[in-house]
């Protein structure tokens, strides 16, 4: 296991989670699926235009062992430049920062720990067909490096507390654009 993945702290976070309520499996899956729905064609308007996203105020996300939220701004990035990694999960989604992810398919939720509020999900992110857009605050933005269609074969763990996501950890290698999932099906058949 690469060092950055083993240091992510997931085991510590889950071990410290106090079990106060046992949640319904379907409720936990709905929160995790809401994350994917809000991420797909992210426009800052909330899940299906509701104005809301399912995050706690201290939500933190790690991708392939590296933090993608709550990272201090490096000195070489100006104060007027968009530095999404310095934002929390909710701020990134409300900004519409992830508009580059155009489709999330083959969603699957093979493991749900109802006592600890943990959901393990698989999905495929299709991206790169749109790499320029306008953020919810009106600023134009271009994703460098997303200039050709590609996909990510994603596995994600969600820590959910009181119906909101507190922690997301994702591991995902690149894949050919719109590949079929090696794990077809899922609860919703998406």
> What general outline do the C-alpha atoms trace?
globular
SS strand fraction: 25-35%
Question: Within the CATH hierarchy, at the fold level, what is the topology?
Answer: Nuclear Transport Factor 2, Chain: A
Share of helix, binned: 10-25%
Report the end-to-end length measured between terminal Cα atoms: 30 Å
**CATH second-level architecture:** Roll
What is the CATH level 1 assignment? Answer: Alpha Beta
Alpha carbon gyration radius: 16 Å
Largest sheet: 7 strands, mixed
List how many beta strands DSSP finds: 9
The run of helices and strands is HHHEEHEEEEEEE
Number of helices: 4
Question: How would you explain this protein's 3D organization?
Answer:
The chain has four helices and nine strands. It has 190 residues and is of the alpha+beta class. It has a single domain (3-175), classed as Nuclear Transport Factor 2, Chain: A. Strands 1, 2, 3, 4, 7, 8 and 9 form a seven-stranded mixed sheet that branches. It has a two-stranded antiparallel ribbon with strand order 5-6. The longest helix has 15 residues, at 25-39. The chain starts with a helix and ends in a 15-residue tail after the last strand. The mean pLDDT is 87.
Characteristics:
alpha+beta; seven-stranded mixed β-sheet; 4 helices; 33% strand; single chain; 190 residues; two-stranded antiparallel ribbon; Nuclear Transport Factor 2, Chain: A
């Amino acid at each position: 296991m690469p060092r950055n993945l083993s240091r992510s702290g997931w085991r510590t976070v889950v071990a410290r989670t106090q079990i106060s309520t046992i949640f319904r499996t379907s409720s936990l899956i709905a929160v995790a699926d809401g994350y994917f729905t809000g991420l797909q064609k992210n426009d800052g308007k909330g899940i299906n235009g509701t104005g809301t996203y399912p995050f706690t105020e201290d939500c933190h996300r790690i991708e392939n062992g590296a933090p993608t939220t709550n990272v201090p701004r490096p000195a070489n990035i100006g104060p007027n430049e968009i530095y999404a990694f310095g934002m929390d999960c909710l701020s990134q989604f409300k900004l519409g920062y992830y508009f580059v992810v155009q489709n999330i398919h083959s969603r699957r939720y093979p493991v749900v720990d109802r006592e600890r509020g943990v959901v393990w999900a698989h999905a495929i992110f299709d991206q790169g067909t749109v790499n320029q857009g306008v953020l919810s605050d009106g600023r134009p933005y271009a994703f460098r490096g997303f200039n050709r269609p590609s996909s990510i074969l994603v596995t994600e763990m969600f820590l959910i507390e009181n119906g909101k996501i507190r922690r997301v950890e994702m591991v995902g290698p690149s894949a050919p654009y719109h590949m079929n999932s090696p794990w077809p099906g899922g609860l919703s058949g998406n």
